[in-house]
TrEMBL record, chain A:
SUPFAM superfamilies registered for this protein in UniProt: CheY-like
PANTHER family: PROTEIN PILG, STRESS RESPONSE REGULATOR PROTEIN 1
Superkingdom of origin: Bacteria
Residue ranges of every copy of the Response regulatory domain listed in the record: 3-119
GO biological process, one term: phosphorelay signal transduction system
UniProt keyword annotation of Phosphoprotein present: yes
Protein's name in the database: Response regulatory domain-containing protein
Signal peptide stretch: none
Species this protein is from: Candidatus Zambryskibacteria bacterium RIFOXYC1_FULL_39_10
Chain positions with 4-aspartylphosphate modification: D52
Keyword Transit peptide part of the UniProt annotation: no
Keywords, in A-Z order: Phosphoprotein, Two-component regulatory system
TrEMBL record, chain B:
Membrane-spanning residues: 12-31
Keywords assigned by UniProt, alphabetized: Kinase, Membrane, Phosphoprotein, Transferase, Transmembrane, Transmembrane helix
Record protein name field: histidine kinase
Keyword flag Kinase: yes
Enzymatic reactions: ATP + protein L-histidine = ADP + protein N-phospho-L-histidine
EC number: 2.7.13.3
PROSITE patterns for this protein: HIS_KIN
Keyword Repressor tagged: no
């Protein structure tokens, strides 16, 4: 079982994603802002973080920055999923260590699930 | 015979007399004619001289009109002098910075001694007029005309000096000299005096105008917010206003050179290249945004041409204008951010609906299950919030285009408020927040306003109050009439404590005031000013994280109140509560 932490203030997204993910392979945890996300990252040690960008309190970009700057935080692959589609934003977060960028509204749940499986598969291979 | 003799002799005598008289007459006429002719010649000479005097004065007026150069004026005078004054040599001395300049034109060959005598008398005259001594050795000298022949022993016979005075100051001396003595009469000197007088008057006047215009121009350039730099055709700085000195971080009181600009602009803007291009090709150029430290500029380079009287242009240099566009860029950024937010706020719920439908279509959710119900509820919420946002955007664009229509009618404000309170009561009860109305006794039954539009304001104020008030808190809607000539009515302050004071209401005539007070988190002082601003949203953290806002509602509320001739406002105390209010004049 792989743990996936969804940090997104959009509750619908985590709920629909949970329904779309095969329940026998993944456990989905959710956090509604970056701060709670950081706490859950430390306490739950997930295998993958799905990170939204526009969020209250600590937003996605600040979350990535925190992750880069703090060596004591667990090194977890981060897949950014947002409705922000500016090229600059995408390249910004990619240089900040994200493993991928999903424009939520451009992709179906099924393709997001495939992205998740691909990233987790790669990480497993690395190990 | 005798008779005949007598008759013959007397006849001779008679004829002789007649001839004598005739001769006398002829002589008389001849001489008087001669005299008349002389007079006419003299008159003609006089009028020629006058015409010449007028012509030269006119010519001087015209030519001097285009020149402020003293030397040029003196050259014009000396050049046209020959036509009415006879001279061996004519010259002038002018005070140039550093040294004197003597320019002599020789009409008939003279000796070196003649010239040196003329020069020393010229300089002596200038020395006497200016009360200064000049070094005779250190003089720029120009000679023209006939050749110098030392063998000619004739020295100066006649000479006179005319000072050239400009703006009350002697700037030079004009000298006319002749080998013959006693030649120049009062009349000659008078006309030359007139000519130089006219010239100096014209120059003085012109200088005054130029000084005044220059003063205006300088004041304008000095006070300009944009940086202005002017260079001549050799790229020397002619004008650099304080703004441009501040831009390049130079001392405002010191002079700057083109190199200061080359240094500070570095590779960002090729100022030298653009200036060269501008001067040589007579073309203007405006740059893209260029940043100097944190400030953005648009740099324009424009050629400066002088339109010549005889046609054509003469390039004098170029002007560089640094226009600060930081504010435009900031506005652009805020707009982009706003558009980005709106797009995000629209996309998220729409995407939510899409994903929910995707799940349902895929058949992974049982239509009879609670999950299915939950998903349908989510889809409903999403579409509702989207619709609200779309309506807000439409209202906002109507307001901005001035097309938002307010349909005033006689309506009962208390009923309208009660209607909204009952609408929000369910959600307030759900959150454990009390929601009440307090209406002043002085509120009339019927008032002129648009009930739908006022409902929109109330929706916004009430939903905001609910967002930021936590469990156990209170929301109170107060409605009252405030007359600025009277005291504020006694409000019910038992459950909430934040209310607008008389000064906050800013009403000039008796007005209906509706205030929505809460016991929420309040608003930080520095965020208050952005609240009613179109593209800014105060960064607040609502109690309920599921509720987000675009901040458009407040802008729309402001628009609606203003369409009614009223105002909106807010007072807040951090940690105590906020109160949003609107006023409508009665």
């Amino acid at each position: 079982m792989k743990k996936i932490l969804v940090i997104d203030d959009d509750q619908f997204f985590s709920k629909t994603l949970e329904a779309a993910l095969p329940a026998d392979k993944y456990i989905l945890l959710s956090a509604e802002d970056g701060e709670i996300g950081l706490e859950k990252l430390k306490s739950e040690k997930p295998d993958l973080v799905i990170l939204d960008l526009m969020m209250p309190k600590l937003d996605g970009t600040a979350f990535l920055k925190r992750l880069q700057e703090s060596p004591d935080l667990p090194k977890v692959p981060v897949l950014v999923s947002s409705n922000l589609s500016s090229v600059k934003k995408i390249s910004d977060v990619m240089t900040m260590g994200a493993v991928g960028y999903v424009i939520k509204s451009d992709e179906s749940l099924q393709s997001i699930v495939q992205d998740i499986e691909r990233v987790i598969g790669q990480e497993t291979k690395k190990e | 015979m005798n008779i005949a003799l007598f008759g013959g002799a007397s006849l001779y005598m008679f004829f002789g007399l007649v001839v004598l008289v005739l001769i006398t007459f002829v002589f008389y006429f001849y001489f008087s004619l001669k005299k008349r002719e002389k007079e006419i010649t003299k008159e003609r000479e006089e009028s020629t001289r006058r015409i010449y005097e007028l012509a030269i004065l006119k010519e001087l007026g015209e030519r001097v009109g285009y020149s402020l150069d003293v030397e040029e004026i003196l050259q014009i005078i000396t050049g046209s002098l020959r036509q009415f004054i006879d001279y061996t040599a004519v010259g002038y001395v002018v005070i140039n910075p550093g040294k004197l300049k003597v320019n002599t034109h020789i009409e008939k060959s003279v000796s070196r001694e003649f010239l040196s005598e003329m020069k020393s008398r010229m300089v002596a005259s200038l020395s006497a007029l200016t009360d200064k001594t000049y070094d005779l050795e250190n003089i720029d000298e120009v000679l023209s005309g006939a050749i110098v022949i030392d063998e000619i022993k004739q020295n100066i016979g006649s000479l006179f000096n005319i000072p050239l005075v400009i703006d009350g100051e002697v700037v030079g001396v004009l000298t006319v000299a002749h080998v013959t003595s006693g030649l120049y009469k009062e009349a000659d000197m008078t006309i030359l005096y007139k000519i130089t007088g006219q010239a100096s008057e014209a120059v003085t006047r012109l200088q005054e105008v130029v000084k005044k215009e220059k003063g205006k121009l300088n004041a304008m350039v000095e006070s300009m917010g944009d940086g202005v730099l002017m260079v001549d055709s050799e790229y020397r700085v002619v004008v650099a206003n304080p703004a441009i000195k501040r831009i390049i971080k130079a001392d405002v009181s010191k002079d700057v050179s083109i190199f200061d600009f080359i240094d500070i602009l570095g590779g960002k803007f090729d100022i030298r290249g653009k200036l060269e291009e501008s001067v040589s090709k007579k073309v203007s150029y405006v740059s893209e945004r260029i940043n100097i430290d944190e400030v953005f500029f648009e740099i324009g380079v424009y050629p400066v041409a002088h339109h010549l009287a005889k046609g054509g242009n003469q390039i004098l240099g170029a002007v560089v204008v640094f226009h600060d566009i930081s504010k435009d860029i900031e506005l652009e950024r805020v707009r982009e951010e706003f558009t980005g937010m709106i797009v995000h706020e629209l996309r998220s719920p729409l995407d939510g609906v899409k994903k929910i439908i995707e799940l349902i279509v895929s058949g992974s959710v049982d239509t009879g299950s609670d999950k299915f119900k939950e998903y349908l509820n989510m889809a409903h919420q999403s579409s509702a919030s989207m619709l609200e946002l779309v309506n807000d955007i439409l209202d906002l664009s109507k307001l901005q285009a001035g097309k938002f229509e307010v349909n005033k009618e006689k309506a009962n404000i208390k009923e309208v408020i009660e209607n909204r309170i009952s609408f929000y009561k369910i959600s307030a009860d759900g959150r454990g927040v009390s929601l009440d109305l307090w209406a002043g006794e002085n509120v009339p039954e019927l008032l002129e306003f648009d009930p739908q539009a006022v409902k929109q304001i109330l929706n916004n104020f009430l939903s905001n109050a609910l967002k930021f008030t936590s469990k156990g808190g209170a929301i109170l809607v107060s409605a009252f009439v405030y007359n600025p000539k009277e005291a504020l009515p006694n409000l019910d302050r038992s459950k909430v404590s934040v209310f607008p004071e008389a000064a906050d209401l800013k009403v000039k005539s008796p007005s209906l005031c509706v205030a929505v007070s809460d016991t929420g988190i309040g608003i930080p002082e520095d965020s208050i000013k952005d609240l009613f601003h179109t593209f800014k949203q105060a960064k607040l953290n609502p109690v309920d994280k599921e509720i987000k806002g675009t901040g458009l509602g407040l802008v729309i509320a402001k628009g609606i109140a203003e369409e009614h001739g009223g105002t909106v406002g807010v007072v807040a105390k951090e940690g105590v509560g906020s109160c949003f209010f609107f006023t409508i004049p009665l």
